[in-house]
Structures are given as C-alpha cells and as structure tokens.
Amino acid sequence: MNNLFQLHIDNLARTPQAVNLVQNADGASLYIYDVISADWGVSAAQVIDAINQAGDAPVLNVYLNSPGGDVFEGRAIMAALDRFPGKTVAHIDSLCASAATSIALACNEINMSQGALFMIHNASGMAFGDKKAMRDTADILQKIELSIIADYTNKTGKPDAEIIALMDSETWMTADEALANGFIDNVIPAKSKTKNTWNLGAYKNAPTPDPQPEPEPEPAPVAGFFMSSANANRLSLIQIL
What is the model's pLDDT at position 241? Predict the structure, then answer.
C-alpha cells in the first residue's frame, strides 16, 4: 500500500495536458485527449474554463480520446456541458472509456469514428482501514454506480439489469456495437485506421493491439498517456468510473 501512495504522490508533479479550444464563426471545438484527473491529465477545472470561453457559440464540438479517470471530475464536466446554452456534439475519435463515456453522454449528440472503442465498467477505487472503512467504500461505490446506470439507461432505453450486466463484464464496444446498444447516435466512416496510444493495462478486458512488424519509437507525450508499465500503474490508481 505504501508503494501505491508513493505512486500517487509522484504523479502529482506531472504537468497536466492542455485543453485545446478552437473557435470560429460556426461554433467551437473542444479537444479532451487525456486521462480525466485533477492530479495528472485533464481536470474538470480546465475543461469548464474552456467551455466558458466558448461563450455563446451555437455549437460546441467535444472531441474525445480518453481512457477515463476520476468519476467526480467527469461528472463536473457533465454538469458544465448540461449548462452550455448551445448544442453540444461529442465526437469519439479513438477511445472513450470509463469516465469519458459520461462526458460523451452529456452531449446532445454522439458521433463515433469507425475503429474507435467505447467501454463501460463498474466503479472502482482505493480503500484503507478496518472492515467498516471497507464497507463504507463499497457503499459509496454502489451509490456512484446507481447514478452511472441511470445515465446509461436514459441514453439507451435499456433496463437496469442489462446495463448492470454490461458494466459487470467490463464491456468494450466497437462503433457499430455502441450504436446497436444505443450508446451513440451515429457512426462516422474512418478515413484511416484508428491507432490507440493508451496503455490499457489497468483494465482486465482491454482488446489486444494488432501486432506490428517492427516496434515504433515511443512518441513524445504531447497529448496522450503513452505505453509503459508505470503508466499502467498510474491509471489503475485513479478512481475510475
């Protein structure tokens, strides 16, 4: 447990990725391409500031490529999107997992690129203490899940039991599967193959990437959480949605 706390402390020094907002006459485009976290990645405060800067834009396009993160940061972003006066459109460019799915569902319309992935699962978190502390944490996680289930059932029209089964199984969906299950509204044909740059080692059912003939050099961490065993440990420490 001490090692886990040390990992968390180490990550506090990580510089969060910038939230990119582009504005023009037709509307505004917001890019969320990182872990959802106040400690490392994209924070709710950053995203809300960008949404406020969009002002009275008629349309706010929210582009997503995120493996998830802190459930409460995600829900704060949801609330800000709900308050936006114009139309909000989510564009799932590559990965929309865990807490990122709630951000997508807060938008009026959800488009997903062919080749992208959509993942839902149970809430998780860390607990330390006696049996009472463990039970209290389990109760909190269950309350969090009830709100998540409500979001998914409202979007899909599916019964609670079916959503709970999908979350229990940590379900990964292609764009066509997400559309068939009612989580998204449109599938956008991809002009090129979607490439995942996220280390998904914290998830038990993450799809295995296609084998590459030759290893590519690791890119500079400009807008992603690139593959390494350390990053897998960091992601597993986040209170994932």
Answer: 44
